[in-house]
Amino acid sequence: MSRKNRRVVVTGLGAVTPLGNSIAETWEGICRGRSGISTIAQFDTSGYKTTIAGEVKGFDPLNFMDAKEVRRVDPFIIFALAAAEMALKDAALAIDSTVAERAGVILGSGIGGLRTIEREVGALNTAGPKRISPFAIPALLANLAPGNIAIRFGLKGPISSVSTACSAGNNAIHDAYRQIIDDCADIMVTGGAEAAVRPIAIAGFNAMRALSTRNDEPQRASRPFDRDRDGFVIGEGAGILILEELERAMNRGARIYAEMIGAACTSDAYHIAAPPPGHEGAARCMALAIKAAGCSPEEIDYINAHGTSTIPNDLCETQAIERVFGVHAQRLAVSSTKSMTGHLLGATGGVEAAITVLALHHGMLPPTINLDNRDPACTLDYVPHHARKRSIRTAMSNTFGFGGVNAVSVFRTFNSKG
Predict the structure, then answer these.
(1) For the whole prediction, is pTM greater than 0.70?
(2) What pLDDT is recorded for position 1?
(3) Cβ–Cβ contacts within 10 Å for residue 187, how many?
(4) Is the dihedral of CA 205, 206, 210, 211 positive or negative?
(5) How far apart are CA 243 and CA 173, in angstroms?
(6) Low-confidence residues of the chain, pLDDT below 50?
(7) Candidate list 174, 279, 306, 361, residue with the active-site label
(8) Is 343 noted as a catalytic residue in this protein?
(9) I want to staple 65 with a disulfide (CB 3.0 to 4.6 A). Which of 69, 184, 270, 304 is the partner?
(10) 299 in a domain, yes or no?
(11) Is residue 361 flagged as an active site residue?
(12) Are residues 234 and 274 in the same domain?
């Protein structure tokens, strides 16, 4: 088979999110329009402007590793390992010596081991250098999420870590997709993981005035495209996809959720944190992803929007969509599942790609909850309040990150004939 004819399909999904500790629980929460936002339980938020987040709840790491290993790794690694194990099981995929060298892992994380950094810096400042754990560095490095996954499951193919802020998970998926298209691998474990609901993150984003302070109504705080939005809600977790070369997947009788048909990444070259008016970089990224997918703008049925619930992002993303799709923008379904999960930073691309794939697989449009009073400048169909049953063929997942990075993935319902 020539490289240009290689096709990539999604055969497994795994997730740990504020909506549930599996992809099934997460998808059920999405379809029910349920919010996973609540008052922060991990630390005392006295004195913080924001006291709410999308925390993972009721998750037992001992279901995935022993107590000794739990103590030696950061939560973002634990989430990644758990989601990867679930995704491989979902794909009914065993990595043995016959496939190991053609199976790899690429994961995104915007920050890495933030809890470990806080803990070890605290130990250093209060008790000196002798109190630093020998496991500190391996626990905090972003690339130790894919590293631990590779070690655990025997993945000897391409391995990498991507750190492009909130686009990290989506960029990781792009890179994994290219490994298969370019015939460097047949199986890739990919997505993103993050565990940044920590004091430094809350205080830092508060200093930027980026977080919602609707502390008395946690479940109503994340409200993308709504007139009364006041910032994003930080979340945590992991989302993992198993990408597989089509012929291999079909030969083993794999269940195929969807096909990945294109991707693109661009830079705004504008500002470290804010999108430019009209978001030309995002528009160009969507247009390039559509071109890479070999389809037309009119063929896109659904966009899982970046939709952070911040004033500038929601408006600029809407403008970018209108710029790319023209009159078709009014026929598109566009929703932000961050209204339910919060913003999982580097994990968001993995989680939202998985949700986009399930939207195609089940013919169900995820809703944007809390859209009570649409911003008059946000003029699209954001699927307000309730999921909507609709057969869709092609869908797009948008992520945009600090530094002006834009990443877009395109998926299609699977057809063996292309």
Answers:
(1) yes
(2) 37
(3) 27
(4) positive
(5) 9
(6) 1-3
(7) 306
(8) yes
(9) 69
(10) yes
(11) no
(12) no
Single out the catalytic residue among 174, 279, 343, 361: 343
Q: Are residues 243 and 105 in the same domain?
A: yes
Within the chain, how many helices (H) and strands (E) appear? 13, 14
| Cβ atoms 192, 250 nearer than 8 A | no
Q: Let me know if 174 is a catalytic residue.
A: no
- Whether residue 256 is contained in a domain is answered as no
At residue 5, the pLDDT reads 85
Q: Are residues 242 and 267 part of one domain?
A: no
pLDDT at 416: 78
Give the largest Cα separation in the chain, rounded: 64
Q: Which residue in 408, 337, 396, 345 sits closest to 369, CA to CA?
A: 337
Helix, strand, or coil here: 236? coil
Distance from C-alpha of 202 to C-alpha of 210, rounded to nearest angstrom? 10
Other residues' Cβ atoms within 10 Å of the Cβ of residue 88: 24
* pLDDT for the residue numbered 97: 95
- The candidate with the shortest Cα–Cα distance to 277, out of 308, 315, 227, is 315
What is residue 4's predicted lDDT score, i.e. its pLDDT? 57
C-alpha to C-alpha distance for 190 and 355, rounded to whole angstroms: 14
Looking at residue 3, its pLDDT comes to 47
C-alpha neighbours within 13 Å on the C-beta side of residue 180: 31
Rounded Cα distance, 58 and 41, in Å:
12
> What's the CATH number where 298 sits?
3.40.47.10
Question: Dihedral angle at the C-alpha atoms of 58, 63, 69, 71, nearest 10 degrees?
Answer: 20
